[in-house]
Amino acid sequence: MGREKRKGKEVVVEKPARKRTRAEKEAERAEMVAKAAEEQASGRARPFQIREDPRGRGRGRGRGMGRVRGARATRAATAAAAESDQSDTAADSDSEAEQSEQSQGQSTHESPTLRRSGRTRQTSPAAETSPATERRTGPRTRGGHQPQEPRRSTAAAAAARRAEALEAERAVFRMDTVVRLEPGVLLQNLTKANAAKVKRLRWSVQEEDWFPVTRDSRVDRRFWTLLQASFYETYQRRGHRIFPHRVLDWVSLRTAAGGADVREHFAHFRGLPRLLQIEQNRYIEDWVRVFYATAWIAPERRAVHFVYGGQVFGLSRATIAGILGVDLVDVSLHEMVYGDADPPRRAMVGGIAPSHEAITQCFRQPFPASYARVPSLLTPEAYAVHMALRRTLLPRSGYPEGFTGLQQLLLLHILTHEPFDIVDFILAEIEDVITDGMGVVRQFPFAHWISYICSMIVSAESPISAPYRHDEAPRFPVYRPTAPQDRRRGRQAERAAMAQLSPEAQARVAQEDEALLAAEAQLPGGEDEIHWSELESDSSEDVEYFPAAAPASHDHEAGGSREPAPESPAPATVSEA
User: Fold this and answer.
1) What is the count of structural domains for the chain?
2) Does 207 lie in the same domain as 108?
3) Model's pTM, two decimal places?
């Protein structure tokens, strides 16, 4: 059907142009390609120039708009023209694709390849997803610059890779505190267990009760029974930590002792200087925690049994002495101070301390018997040895002004070179920590020596002990004490008060102190003499120190109210699988 077109007063009916078939278009294009090849071969080809397709102009405004501009038409004619134009466009695209393939195949043998401009060909899906296209789709700036992500240098990338590798290695030593159980199995809640209950569960039982013949398969292989796993879980809940030991530096100790050779005192005990030095200062925290949760010490500390790597090991005192490289001596310092008292013994104040004649050589002279035995009155050499022992062999972290009978006896044996059983001393301290109640948050001592013993009881090729030999295993730092003239050492409050006085007043106070000390030294001792043990207070490893409560107003009626306040109720839930 034709289309009407007004030209003045006459109505002109235009007939629609006949559509070319696909065969006609292919023949026309083949003729054009042959003619171009002939011209190229004869040298009569014109310079190549890109010519825009005139049909692309109408297509740019959208498909189905038609090619006739500025005329009115009926709705039926418009729909028919749109359908015919869509079919023509599809046919043109197919014929163009086939013709381009043929032309490219022929020109490969006869002429250089003629590439069409990107503005005249339709964008392909591959081009839409190319990285270059994605970079150009970003927001443009006023100057046309494309903002790009900052590129890391090669050194920064290598440093990042090294940091990731180091983090992966350190992850091996992160402690896995989860106790794995079978579904439906529960652990005992021991958060409120006092010393009596702990002794009844661990110290008063036999070895066959603590380590049955068969292991309980309901708990993971680190433990032998559910009770041992319950102790492990309770230690985690109560916040028991590893004691922060130190390794000794003999040069720093010599400076702190005023030039005295401190190492000579320790060298009289075979293997003791090597234990206190830097060789055995690494530890594996989970080994230590499992040891304190599973250890059972035989009567008279003849042996210790514990679980390591899923197996039960029993080590006698002679075996432990051979691993640590120390001598066995039939002298127990704990028995000399506390006698045959049951553990825990560190809560006992006093005990049998060295006599005044024996211990007076450790203090600055004159030192009368009426004086309290406190570390601030020790000689520089004795003070340096005492503070080193508090961080190594006899670990104490709280109340530095205390000086118990056990600390005095140990210091006297070190300074006088009197032998004593080092293995028995270590086992007795471990026994006190194990048998203490859960209400007292103790710290686990000797973590580095326990880890060293565990690494030595298995073969060197065993994968169980591999973490101990790794360079990333945690280590205890070196102890560097303060010098005698350091202002941080001793009673800082007294020195600060003395610094506010004039030089004349400071000299007068010093003379009065010396005169008073000489006068007290001349006083005879009687039965009413105040002994040092009445002023002594045991050192503690507790996290917090709480002073004794003041007497209540009705203590004389009800018999006293100094019992500790009940703890906040612990969560009743326990670990499950």
Assistant:
1) 2
2) no
3) 0.59
